[in-house]
Amino acid sequence: MKISRYLLTFCLSVMLAFSFSAHSAKIDLSQAVNKAGKQRMLSQRIAKAYFFLGNGVRRDKAEQQLHISIAEFIKNHTELKAEISNQNVQKMLAFVDIIIEEYIDLAGRPYSKESAAQVLDLSETILEASHDIVVKIEALANVEKPKIINISGRQRMLSQRIAKYYIAYQSGFKDPDSISQIKKAVSEFESALALLKAEKINTPEITDNLARVSLLWRVIRPFFLDVEKGGLPVTVFATTDKIMDHMNNITSMYVKAAA
After folding, report:
1. Whose CA is closest to 36, among 123, 120, 136?
2. Distance between CA 123 and CA 165 in Å, rounded?
3. How confident is the model at residue 21 (pLDDT cuts 50, 70, 90)?
4. Domain residues of the chain, as ranges?
5. In which element (H, E) is residue 209 found?
6. C-beta separation of 80 from 133 below 8 A
7. Which one of 7, 139, 178, 189 is least enclosed by Cβ atoms within 10 Å?
8. Coil, helix or strand for 133?
């Protein structure tokens, strides 16, 4: 996986380009909640792609996903820095500035157990910081609708988080915490899905997409609850990505409903 220097140079170039082009005009806070919520998902997607690539599963797809996810994370991060002037949000964005370069560098290195452990740790740190940013922006909106955007957007993250820990377990990270994190994420995903299906502002299109997510979830759920048996990593990769795509569409629909 000889992509470290190229990947880091490319991503820092993207960051620099957007730092010059981004403007300070305020955006709709519902859109900001959605954008910040994507950062949670991307923090997990980067690590997931790193593990799949390092283990030779869907190599082309995983490498492409790794590049795209890092570039999108940096783009969103730079835009949020320009668009949200609140000091508390800016402090957390500055914290992400400190750790993102190391995360990108690690994700671009050839796979090793040591680097993989660091990628796992940093993915958790960036997820925590990104979630805090979402919560702070949601509080700025001071209305109910962005909350459903947050909940829906978090499903994107959970789909990638589950896949991350699934492939990490298959890669040798067989500690009890990996199993605990998978089962916790599964429970949180199911609870949120039930809440979203009962949401009063759902349009027929949202309802249809949620039904598709439910169908995919029923297929893949048993693999996560019986992770110790392993197997079928390609199915996990493909199905969690489909779920993520549907949840991304649903979240965009909630943003429109909140406008």
Report:
1. 136
2. 11
3. very low
4. 4-258
5. helix 204-225
6. yes
7. 139
8. helix
